[in-house]
Design brief:
Strand order of the largest sheet: 1-8-9-10
Structural class: alpha+beta
Radius of gyration: 49 Å
Low-confidence stretches: 694-704
Number of strands: 12
Distance between the termini: 47 Å
Length: 704
């Protein structure tokens, strides 16, 4: 049998074992070399990632300052309009009219402060965003330097995308100025009409109070309620008792009177059987029947804007009785005798037998009738019936007459009040309508920004320390030093809805509140209102409503005319209709992304060059060592504008609510520690360092 030296029947040979071991050892040492290479590369990649996050964090902090400036502009706009609205409301009562001038003036002052702040804030933010490339680069370079140690040191160059921000321009707010001009033109007329309305309202309220007291307010003393209960036994719905003049109306008294006389007529009885008393009782019946018919003609027509009432007057004496139907009604029996004609009080009079006709008191006085010796009936007899209950306060008619007089006084006062109140409501209401329109238009005067780095940042990083020597081994080809170690990283801003952004902005706004100073009177109300309105940026409509409501509580708007309360309600309604939504306060935080994502979102030269080189590196990996060499020079020139400040922060603008004489509240931007005192030419040195590192691999053989 022929034997094969390289295999046996089972396929296992000595030569095969040797080859397998050699291949295995080669793969192990190659994998170790790859791991060593990747480990070295990961160090610089980690530095690049950290530098990218640090660079983009500067942009995130800039956006927080933008939100604070926007909150200040919005709050000042709303406060200006709120102060104007409060001034209009204050015009509606004489007590608050003097404060109106201060409130309206404060509204203009706050609007001027808003305009001044917005202009300075836009200028300061524009200056700051032009320096963002430098600040971000400085922050990235500082992080890269801090990550070095031992023989390793790192350089990092951060490039923002876009590298230039959009100019921040604040819109105009013509509606506020137009409204304030209109208010100034209407102020005197509204104030004068409100003053006269208040005077008329005070007279009306005094008359109504008198009527209430005479009807039922004086209970248990004499009043219509008490007399009706005592004299006619009236209870329940026919004789209601009101405890407050605010719930009472003249209609209550009139309805009580309409119920009283039928009750009193039905209950009328003579006190004894004497002819004189029986005659008086019959005359009282006649009077009650007449009063029931007369009072039934009465009416009260009342609405929010008008009042009409008719309380028929009942006669108080004989003279007044002669002007009523009691004088002319022919209901009294007349007899003829030898001595002349006699008229009797009623048919039941002992002397009235054989009456030939019925006559009136008017006929009796015209015909000089003889007085009946039994009942003694005369014109004065009926006059005394009315006089007995209208002349002294134990009579129902006495109090009814006082209510009737009060109703007439109330109607006269309302006749003056209602047109004046309607005038105030119409003129002030028109201003409130324009205020609502102005509140809806302040959204046009806001601060928004698309700064450098809005799309993200790309960082170029490299290790500038001594290159590590190659890992010698029997199964890998020696390659000398590993060469330059470089990496590209990128980061962008993402919203974090965890609430940190709201906390940061709210904290800064709280600082504005605390530093806002103190004032008293109308200015104090406006300053407190601004403090409350600041919360509307984060909380929306609820905070705005609360701020205006609190300011209204600080004004004594209550008055006899009710115009102050109306104005407060109208202003609150207009403000509530704004529907202000809270600003988006999600924190913007840097997050690592593929550099292609950042570059593809930007249309700048750097982004285009980076994308081109990345595509070339993917197509020809061995030609990718010139990535930095190609683009460092492209971005170097755009990172040279620094911040001329040695302190830890720069003032963007100051909020001066009441002009130069009022408190000043600065809004500042804290400089990154790395940027404090850093020379502008540091960017050039970093670029030179990166070029030097990259030059180390020019022409070098790619590690195999």
């Amino acid at each position: 049998m022929k034997r094969d030296l390289f295999r046996d029947e089972e396929g296992f040979t000595s030569v095969g074992v040797v080859l397998a071991l050699l291949i295995t050892l080669s793969l192990v040492f190659s994998a170790g070399q790859v791991y060593r290479l990747n480990a070295a590369a990961s160090k610089v990649q980690n530095v690049a990632d950290a530098a990218a996050l640090a660079a983009q964090n500067v942009v995130a902090e800039f956006m927080i300052v933008v939100k604070v400036c926007d909150a200040a502009v919005l709050s000042l706009s709303l406060t200006s309009l709120a102060a104007t609205g409060l001034g209009v409301a204050a015009l509606c009562t004489p007590v608050t009219a003097p404060a109106s001038e201060a409130l309206l003036s404060a509204g203009r002052s706050v609007a001027r402060a808003r305009d001044s702040f917005a202009e300075k804030a836009a200028s300061g933010l524009n200056r700051l965003q032009r320096a963002l490339p430098f600040l971000s680069a400085a922050n990235a370079a500082s992080v890269a330097t801090a990550d070095g140690g031992g023989s390793s040191s790192y350089l990092a160059l951060a490039v923002l995308a876009p590298d230039e921000g959009q100019e921040i321009v604040v819109g105009a707010d013509a509606a506020t100025e137009a409204l304030q001009d209109e208010v100034d033109g209407e102020a005197e007329g509204i104030s004068e009409a409100a003053k006269r309305a208040e005077e008329a309202a005070e007279r009306a309220n005094e008359a109504k109070l008198r009527g209430f007291e005479r009807d039922c307010g004086a209970n248990p003393s004499y009043c219509m309620y008490e007399r009706a209960r005592s004299l006619a036994g009236m209870e329940g719905a026919d004789n209601p008792l009101y405890r407050s003049v605010d719930t009472w109306s003249f209609a209550v008294a009139l309805e009580r009177a309409k119920a009283y006389y039928p009750h009193r007529l039905a209950a009328e009885r003579s006190e004894n059987d004497s002819v004189e008393e029986r005659a008086r009782s019959k005359l009282r019946e006649r009077f009650y029947a007449y009063a029931a018919q007369e009072v039934e003609r009465g009416y009260v027509r009342e609405s929010e804007g008008s009042f009409e009432a008719f309380f028929p007057h009942l006669p108080k004496n004989t003279e007044e009785m002669r002007a009523t139907g009691l004088y002319t009604e022919a209901v009294y029996p007349v007899t003829e005798g030898a001595d002349g004609t006699v008229m009797h009080a009623w048919e039941g009079c002992p002397e009235a037998a054989g009456a030939v006709r019925f006559g009136s008191i008017e006929q009796m006085e015209a015909g000089s009738y003889i007085t009946c010796p039994a009942c003694g009936f005369s014109a004065a007899s009926m006059g005394k019936v009315a006089a007995a209950s209208t002349s002294i306060d134990n009579g129902f008619e006495y109090h009814y007459e006082k209510v009737a007089e009060a109703a007439e006084d109330y109607e006269r006062a309302r006749a003056e009040l209602d047109p004046l109140a309607n005038e105030v409501r119409e003129r002030a209401g028109g201003l409130f309508d324009r205020l609502g329109d102005a509140l809806g238009s302040v959204a046009g005067m806001r601060i928004d920004a698309r700064p450098p780095g809005a799309l993200g940042v790309v960082v170029l990083a490299a290790c500038t320390g001594a290159s590590e020597s190659a890992w010698p081994g029997p199964f890998v080809q020696p390659a000398g030093a590993l060469g330059a170690q470089a990496a590209v990283s990128a980061a962008t801003l993402v919203a974090d809805p965890a609430g940190e952004g709201a906390s940061v902005v709210s904290s800064l706004l709280d600082g504005l509140r605390d530093d806002g100073g103190a004032a008293v009177g109308a200015l104090g109300i406006v300053l407190d209102c601004w403090s409350g309105v600041l919360g509307a940026y984060a909380e929306g409509q609820k905070a705005l409503d609360g701020a205006v409501s609190s300011a209204l509580d600080g004004l004594p708007l209550a008055g006899a005319s009710g115009l102050g309360s109306w104005a407060a309600g109208a202003l609150s309604e207009v403000v509530s209709a704004v529907g202000l939504e809270p600003a988006n306060l999600d924190a913007l935080k840097p997050a690592l992304v593929n550099s292609a994502h950042v570059a593809s979102a930007d249309d700048g030269a750097f982004a285009a060059q980076l994308l081109s080189l990345k595509r070339g590196a993917m197509e020809s990996p061995f030609a990718s060592n010139d990535v930095f060499q190609s683009i460092v020079g492209l971005v170097e020139g755009g990172l040279v504008e620094g911040i001329d400040a040695a302190s830890g922060s720069i003032v963007i603008a100051e909020v001066r609510v009441f002009g130069d004489s009022g408190p000043a509240v600065p809004i500042e931007f804290a400089l990154p520690e790395a940027a404090k005192g850093m020379a502008v030419d540091v960017i050039e040195r970093i670029a030179d360092g990166l070029r030097t590192v990259c030059a180390q691999v020019t022409g070098a053989r790619v590690w195999e």
